[in-house]
Amino acid sequence: MEGNVDIVKLLLENGADVNTQGGKYGNALLAALDVNAQCEEYGNALQAASCGGQVDIVKLLLENGTDVNAQGGRYGNALQAASLAFAAGVDIVELLLENGADINVEGGKYGTALQAASTAVFDSYSDCDYVKHVEVLLDNGADINSRGGQYGSPTQAAAIRGIFWNM
């Protein structure tokens, strides 16, 4: 995913509502972030930017009042998207937490941010340190025994993904 910071800035400067939803792409900001994005995938612009590792756009959206805990899409919320995405470094996870992201909110395919980080695929193509993602989430109060999501719990997610990806 490749976002266009200049277009996002222009939209924001001209009064774009960072929380508006509707249409094929969810809203103009989401379309500017990824011309192929559908709102079912990302839910909102903050999720798309978080998933894509676009720190500058995440900062812009937060500065302009986006709802850091908005729910929707496959990833549930921006913190889950950042916790799972190989493109998102731990700096986005920390930025979302600093701006009030609810670390234990449930929703989306992965249940919680900790479960999303626990499902991450460890491979040689990724330079993202998912262990650091898990550590940051735990250090900030993530519930290690949370239930829900596709895998049931963070521990089950890590065990199942480890089994299938290391075969």
From TrEMBL:
Keywords: ANK repeat, Repeat
Renumbered ranges of ANK repeats: 1-23, 41-73
Pfam families linked to this entry: Ank, Ank_2
Protein name as catalogued: Ankyrin
The organism of origin for this protein: Tetrapyrgos nigripes
Lineage: Eukaryota, Fungi, Dikarya, Basidiomycota, Agaricomycotina
InterPro entries linked: Ankyrin_rpt, Ankyrin_rpt-contain_sf, Multifunctional_ANK_Repeat
PROSITE patterns referenced in this protein's UniProt entry, alphabetically: ANK_REP_REGION (PS50297), ANK_REPEAT (PS50088)
SUPFAM superfamilies linked to this entry: Ankyrin repeat (SSF48403)
